Amino acid sequence: MAALLRNLRSGNSLSNCSLVPPHLLTSCRGIVSKLFVGGLSFYTTDKILAEAFSRFGQVVEAKVVMDRVSDRSKGFGFVTFASDDEAYRAVTELNGKTLNGRTVFVDYAKPRVGQKLGMPIARGPPERKVDDN
Q1: Distance CA 68, CA 73 (A)
Q2: Do residues 73 and 44 touch, judged by C-beta distance below 8 A?
Q3: Are 58 and 82 in contact (CB under 8 A)?
Q4: Which residues contact 24 (CB under 8 A, 6 or more apart)?
Q5: Per-residue pLDDT tens digits for 106-117
């Protein structure tokens, strides 16, 4: 709230304000039109996801996130649209609707924070403590 008041007092426009609807800020955030889709069925594939969202516009990419060990869906995925307007329509139309027997939740994807690059370091078992007695 304090940031909003500072912006208003300084005469800045509200284009950088967090109260502006997300579909207007997607290009400012660096995410062109990528949507997060949660609550997916374990049987939903990339193709099914792309077909469900393609009625709202050109789907550039549809990806269901898979578990590396079990090779099963983790129950969420991402859909990238060619334009912001198409993505906005998909969010408003599909959020809370049923896809493959499950209610899905659709929202704008958020950028990754604190992303680790590369492979994790294998540290091995903990060292044994040696008593000096």
Answers
A1: 9
A2: yes
A3: yes
A4: 15
A5: 999 988 776 666
From the number of C-beta atoms within 10 Å of its C-beta (0-12, 13-18, 19+), residue 76 rates as: middle
User: For residues 7 and 109, what is the distance between their CA atoms, to the nearest angstrom?
Assistant: 26
9, 15, 19, 24: CA torsion to nearest 10: 170
Distance between CA atoms of residues 92 and 8, nearest Å: 29
Tokens of 114: 């604190």
- Pairwise CA distance, residues 13 & 81, whole Å: 28
Instruction: Measure CA 10 to chain center.
Output: 33
Six token digits for residue 7: 């912006």
What's the whole-model pTM score? 0.63
- 7-39: per-residue pLDDT in tens? 555 555 444 444 544 444 444 444 468 999 999
CA 35 to chain centroid: 6
Distance of CA 80 to the CA centre of its chain: 10
Q: Are 32 and 80 in contact (CB under 8 A)?
A: yes
Predicted local confidence at residue 129, as pLDDT: 73
